[in-house]
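Weekly modeling sync, notes
Attendees: AB, CL, MP (scribe)

Item 1: holo prediction request
CL wants a bound-state model with NAP before deciding which constructs to order. AB pointed out that an apo prediction alone won't tell us much about the pocket. Agreed to run with the ligand included and paste results into these notes for async review.

Input as submitted:
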Amino acid sequence: MSTAAHQSQDNPNDMEPLISAQPPHPDAEQHEPTGATATPAVDPSSDATAAEPSATTTKNSSEATINITAAYFNKVAKHPDDFHIGSFAIPAEPPTDHVRIKPPTDHVRIKVYAAALNPIDWERAQKGTLGRLFPIKYPSRVGYDVAGVVSKLGAGVTRFNPGDAVYGRLNHETGVGSVADYVDIAADDIAHKPSCLRFNQAAAIPLAGLTALQALRASGLAEGKNIFVNAGAGGVGSFALQLAKNYFRATKVSTTVSTSKVEVAMGLGAAEAIDYTKKDFVKELGPQYDVAIDTVGEHSRIAKILRPHASPPSKFVSIVGVPNSAEVGPLLDQLRRQGLFGAAKAKFIGKVLDASQWWKMRDLRKRGIDYGFVFARSSGEDLDMVFNALIEGGALQVPIDSTYEFSESGLRSAFSRLMEGKVAGKVVICMKKG
Ligand SMILES: NC(=O)c1ccc[n+]([C@@H]2O[C@H](COP(=O)([O-])OP(=O)(O)OC[C@H]3O[C@@H](n4cnc5c(N)ncnc54)[C@H](OP(=O)(O)O)[C@@H]3O)[C@@H](O)[C@H]2O)c1
């Protein structure tokens, strides 16, 4: 591995790690994983002002870099041991007018206090469906969800100040990598953290919460309607149940969970939580729903509990099925701009997706049910306007499955838990105070 502070142009959060060359970062001491009940390494309620990373490599002002510590994988991951923590060089200043962002947006640098994992972190690393569709450059950093304190502002950022406690979701366009001691994020993608929320809770919200919100919006859910969301205790499901009840004012919210999570789901707003390990939700519920969100991949069975040939039509929204070319279009455009593949490949992928979605959704079509796929996107505005308002009004809980320290063993334990697919709420990694 090169000892030079090499900068990649593809992802400001994804520079070549200086694994062999750097002494351990002061924040990267090794700790045993804390497991589900342990106290996080950081006091997540602390709003202490962030310290700057120390090491600075100065060439000229535009090429100056600093070293940070971040989680990454360096090959197709098959096991939690394939995740590592190492030193990366990043530009000394947060990026401004980033080349790939249209319109350009300015970034802030966050001293990370907590970062949450999502299934997509494992999916990317193991080259699952998403990984096969979207090429990954190694070493690749890990993590979308972040909560922390603003340590530096990109030029032009006016909504935030150094020392502000914030949270948000990174995206493919600007680069992922929230499991780190510092990360750069577009100012548009973050919101101020409500003071009543701890950092580990704030980090647990963005990706899963925004997915639930945007899927529910796409479903047209409104007061007077009945909704079914499967896996109601999962990361997305636990937010979807609460938002359906407390924000969209659904009349009836039903879900499926395994045995130990029935009470959890009822506590999140479900009127019915069917134990899917013992009962068939199709037989239990019947065709009474106006709207369904699929977070598991059960479209043919869900088709049987949506009201057939209704007017207006019942609506099925998937976050796990197959998107069509229109739904995946913005993402494909972005990947083309990044040079990850050309226009012909994008067109071919679009055609394959259209045919695949048309075939897979035939049961829904036969019953006159509208369907669609939602790719969630980052949105500081949604965090601010929807989540902050609900949290401050006491109308949203943030379920946390387990918390781990920022160390290789903590990281690997967190991935082990995520990969079991059995969580109740979110898997969160807490960083040490800088
Ligand atoms: N399109 C997008 O933008 C987008 C965004 C976020 C997530 N996703 C995808 O959505 C899926 C869910 O994400 P997540 O973050 O909610 O996952 P998660 O936090 O890992 O939760 C998965 C949940 O599913 C439950 N489960 C597993 N099999 C089930 C079944 N047959 N019936 C009911 N529940 C079942 C699990 O617990 P038990 O089995 O113990 O009950 C667990 O609670 C993932 O595939 C993810 O990649 C897509």
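Recorded for review: The chain has two domains: 1-205+400-434, 208-373.
Action items: CL to compare against the apo run; MP to circulate these notes.
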